[in-house]
Specification:
It contains six helices and two strands, in the order H-H-H-E-E-H-H-H. The protein is an all-alpha fold. The chain has one domain. It has a two-stranded antiparallel ribbon with strand order 1-2. The longest helix is centred in the first third of the chain and has 25 residues. It starts with a helix and ends with a helix. 18% of the residues are buried.
Length: 152
Amino acid sequence: MKRTLIRLLMVSCGLVALSYAAVFVTGVGTGWAPWTLAIGANGVIMSLMAIGAVRHDTLPRSLVWIFVGVFALCAGAFLAALALPAAEGASGALLFGLPLRTAIVLYGVGVVPILILPLAYALTFESSTLSEDDLDRVRSAYAVVRAEREAA
């Protein structure tokens, strides 16, 4: 599982690098660079979160779907903001008092994931925390390291 997530991380980093390279080489943003940046940046964040949640080379199934869903939500919010025509200004559409594109990004990337992710971790807390056997292994490893330091 960790190898797969690291591959996803590398692909996401590649998309971000490709987006930056397109701007640096051409001097102006190409039509596809913001799109790949939106997907790649969200892929980096979600794959790092998933790598952090892996335990014993497995990721709980419920978290897989949460991470995929939050990735789709966040990347979709950025892509929707990119797809909408620029109509900001006095006559532009508002959503909850904000310009439409700003509201989509703010709520889709900022607010909704803050509500979803802590709930997901709370639901998987028991299966994700260290067991007594794990704690015993950590304590014994610490005792070995401490004895080596005292001997040196």
